[in-house]
Design a protein that fits this description.
- The structure holds two protein chains of two kinds.
- In chain A, about 70% of the residues lie in helices and about 0% in strands.
- By secondary structure, chain A is mainly alpha-helical.
- Chain A has a single domain, classed as Up-down Bundle (Formate dehydrogenase/DMSO reductase fold).
- By secondary structure, chain B is of the alpha+beta class.
- Chain B has a single domain, classed as Alpha-Beta Plaits, CATH 3.30.70.20.
- Helices cover about 20% and strands about 25% of the residues of chain B.
- In chain B, strand 6 and strand 7 form a beta hairpin.
- Classes of the chains: A mainly alpha, B alpha+beta.
- At the A-B interface, helix 5 of A face helix 2 and helix 3 of B.
């Protein structure tokens, strides 16, 4: 089976690893911003309600990943492998995070939610979120898989989550019509963009590393012939996505800019641009994740 | 636990694939599933030195099934605990009631062994012909080999008899302790060698 067909078979996992880590990261950012930011009670409630966006995306990823199973009805046995199997750890961590975050989201609709409880719950969700992303990152850590059992794999998943998460969190801010100070947004964007740049560097290093790997039957780099083009698309797409987001911050930083440059056309427009930025980032990230599955190679005799 | 395994006598094997066919027949396997495959490893070049043509061309066969490893990575990564190792024989087996066809075992197996069987909606593999062994017989691949290139038995006894080589090219270095002993064919290359290619990729199932 060719490497493209291999990745195509794992298409639902490609979707899962594209959406879920960034979604989890965004959930944590929004929840923390809602509880410890400058939002008042009404704004906090709106932010928590709109957390449904990243939560929904994460759940779409999780549900899609389960559809690649031949017999999902047997999946409850997954608890058997917790601690032993990286995949079991991943599933358990994802279910725990999404269950807890889902309950937290429901609780945000309570008439008089208790702030201390919400704060404690947010901390717990943040910890579960970190565990969830790390467990997704480590799910492919099998020593016999040459191309996946490298530090590049978990690091790139984490960095991609931290690059996509802030973009998604900003979308939630826009959708909930909550405006944090420009300084807060700028820090969030700077952190996200730094993670994006780091992920690019890591992916380039990973591609260089592929040239040194081969099994008895095929070289790793031959499995992903289009990887340089995909990396280029990721660089351009990610940069444009962040550019579209910075455009709105620009209105605060450079008030004299023309409105079509500064993004001061109004909230609806900001939300629309934020959606475009996120869609663009997810598309290029999807391509990178697709290549990840294309490069599957044991050190043995698998084709 | 007694670990049973296979012995492959490389110099005897002619690549006839009777072992594969007997296995398919006995287990009623469809064309896309093979519990035992015969790999044809081929390589080398011709060179002209002072008007004389010389070559280092080689081609040989390696018959492989599940190696029922002593450190089975497939069992380690299975999230379902669906893969187990027999206490009596060391044979690996899959519980179809637990398997979810996530293919974690296939992704991790360095010998590319587990296969998905649509008929039972689960991963399948060689079980050393457990039913035949229970009757005191040999696995069908061993019985069928016309060259007597395969043997089956206690892996420690096979090692004592034939040595402890458990990998040649195109097999990988034996990090999972495969229960196999090999006598290398003529011109056999060491595990990890990349001078040759698997010439019959499309025959592997």
């Amino acid at each position: 089976m060719g490497s493209f067909a291999t990745a195509l078979e794992e298409l639902t996992l490609v979707v899962f690893t594209t959406l879920a880590p960034a979604g989890v990261c965004a959930c944590v950012i929004v929840a923390v911003a809602a509880m410890w930011g400058t939002a008042d009670d009404a704004e906090r409630a709106r932010l928590q309600h709109m957390c449904s966006i990243p939560l929904f995306l994460s759940m779409v990823g999780l549900v899609m990943s389960s559809t690649h199973l031949g017999t999902p009805t047997n999946a409850l046995y997954v608890v058997d492998g917790i601690g032993r199997s990286p995949l079991s750890n991943e599933v358990a961590a994802c279910v725990l995070f999404m269950g807890s975050s889902g309950m937290f989201w429901l609780y945000s609709f309570a008439l008089a939610p208790r702030a201390p409880l919400q704060k404690a719950w947010t901390i717990a969700n943040a910890v579960l979120g970190v565990v969830c992303v790390v467990s997704i990152a480590l799910a492919y850590n099998s020593p016999t898989i040459l191309t996946w059992s490298t530090p590049f794999t978990p690091l790139s998943v984490c960095l991609e989550a931290m690059a996509g998460g802030p973009l998604l969190a900003l979308l939630v801010f826009r959708a909930s019509t909550v405006r944090f100070s420009d300084v807060v947004e700028r820090r969030l964007i700077t952190a996200g963009f730094a993670c994006f740049v780091a992920s690019v560097v890591l992916l380039v290093a990973q591609y260089a590393h592929l040239h040194t790997l081969a099994s008895g039957v095929v070289s790793a780099v031959a499995l992903v012939p289009g990887y340089p083009a995909v990396l280029l698309a990721y660089v351009v797409g990610g940069a444009v996505a962040y550019g579209l987001t910075v455009r709105h911050v620009a209105s605060g930083l450079f008030p004299k800019l023309p409105s079509f440059l500064s993004g001061a056309e109004g909230l609806g427009s900001k939300l629309a641009w934020s959606i475009v930025a996120n869609a663009l980032f997810m598309v290029v990230l999807f391509a990178v994740r697709f290549c990840f599955y294309m490069m599957h190679l044991t050190y043995g005799i698998g084709f | 636990m007694t670990q049973y395994g296979f012995y492959f006598n490389g110099p005897r094997c002619t690549g006839c694939k009777t072992c594969s066919m007997a296995c398919k027949d006995k287990n009623d396997l469809p064309p896309e599933i093979g519990f035992r495959n015969v790999y044809e490893y081929t390589g080398g070049t011709w060179s002209n030195e002072g008007g004389l043509w010389k070559n280092d061309v080689f081609s040989y066969y390696v018959s492989l099934s599940c190696n029922h490893c002593a450190s089975p990575v497939c069992m380690e990564v299975c999230p379902q605990g669906a893969i187990s190792k027999s206490e009596e024989t060391g044979a690996m087996s899959v519980d179809p009631e637990k398997c979810i066809h996530c293919e974690s075992c296939l992704k991790a197996c360095p010998y590319d062994v587990p296969r998905y069987d649509e008929a039972i909606d689960a991963m399948v593999r060689c079980d050393m012909c457990a039913d035949l062994i229970a009757q005191g017989k040999q696995p069908v691949c061993v019985e069928a080999c016309p060259l007597r290139a395969l043997e089956f038995g206690d892996i420690e006894e096979l090692k004592a008899k034939y040595g402890d080589v458990s990998a040649i090219a195109p097999m990988p270095e034996p990090t999972t302790e495969p229960s196999i002993v090999i006598t290398a064919p003529i011109n056999g290359k060491p595990a990890g060698d990349t001078a040759g290619i698997v010439a019959n990729e499309r025959e592997i199932s």
